């Protein structure tokens, strides 16, 4: 396919499982779908923005958080909620945000949404005062209440 990527110049933290496997030459394939891999990376960045922590260190069996993510998907459980629990972080995200993150962080690249599907996702269609306020609200949700009051007065 002309759309198979054959380079892996990206931090392992943001790399999709198929990119990590391909760069380690474990997959046996000639490349990977760069568009699907980008959707994984988008999920990593969005998770970090909304939860305040990266979801995992590396999408490989060497990372216990990835093992938990994969197990949650095999059980049909929420990837996002499983990762939050594994990191001892309460998951205070709205259900539509969780479903978007779960879809983006799907181990199977063929099941990840396309950018068009992400644009149309219900979470992005919800009315918000502004993207900046949504980001700030997510940030404050990750901070203990005592510190949150101090920071919100400073903003």
Summarize the structure.
With 155 residues, this protein is mainly alpha-helical. The protein contains 9 helices and 2 strands; from the N terminus they run E-H-E-H-H-H-H-H-H-H-H.
Key words describing this protein structure:
155 residues, two-stranded antiparallel sheet, 9 helices, disordered C terminus
- What is the count of β-strands? 2
Strand order, main sheet: write it out. Answer: 1-2
Helix/strand class: mainly alpha
Mean pLDDT: 77
Give a short account of the largest sheet.
2 strands, antiparallel
Using only C-alpha atoms, the radius of gyration works out to: 16 Å
Order of SSEs, N→C?
Answer: EHEHHHHHHHH
- What coarse outline follows from CA principal-axis ratios? globular
End-to-end CA span: 49 Å
Strand content: under 5%
Number of helices: 9
Percentage of residues in helical conformation: 40-55%
Flag low-confidence runs: 5-9, 146-155
């Amino acid at each position: 396919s002309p759309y198979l990527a054959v380079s892996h110049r990206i931090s392992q933290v943001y790399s999709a499982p198929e990119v990590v496997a391909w760069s380690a030459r474990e997959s046996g394939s000639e490349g990977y779908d760069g568009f699907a891999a980008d959707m994984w990376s988008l999920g990593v960045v969005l998770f970090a923005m909304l939860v305040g922590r990266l979801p995992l260190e590396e999408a490989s069996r060497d990372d216990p958080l990835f093992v938990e993510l994969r197990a949650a998907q095999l059980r049909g459980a929420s990837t996002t909620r499983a990762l939050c629990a594994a990191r001892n972080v309460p998951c205070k995200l709205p259900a539509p945000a969780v479903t978007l993150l779960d879809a983006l962080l799907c181990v199977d690249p063929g099941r990840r949404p396309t950018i068009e599907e992400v644009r149309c996702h219900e979470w992005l269609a919800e009315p918000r005062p502004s993207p900046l306020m949504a980001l700030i609200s997510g940030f404050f949700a990750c901070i203990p209440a005592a510190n949150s009051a101090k920071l919100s007065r400073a903003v």
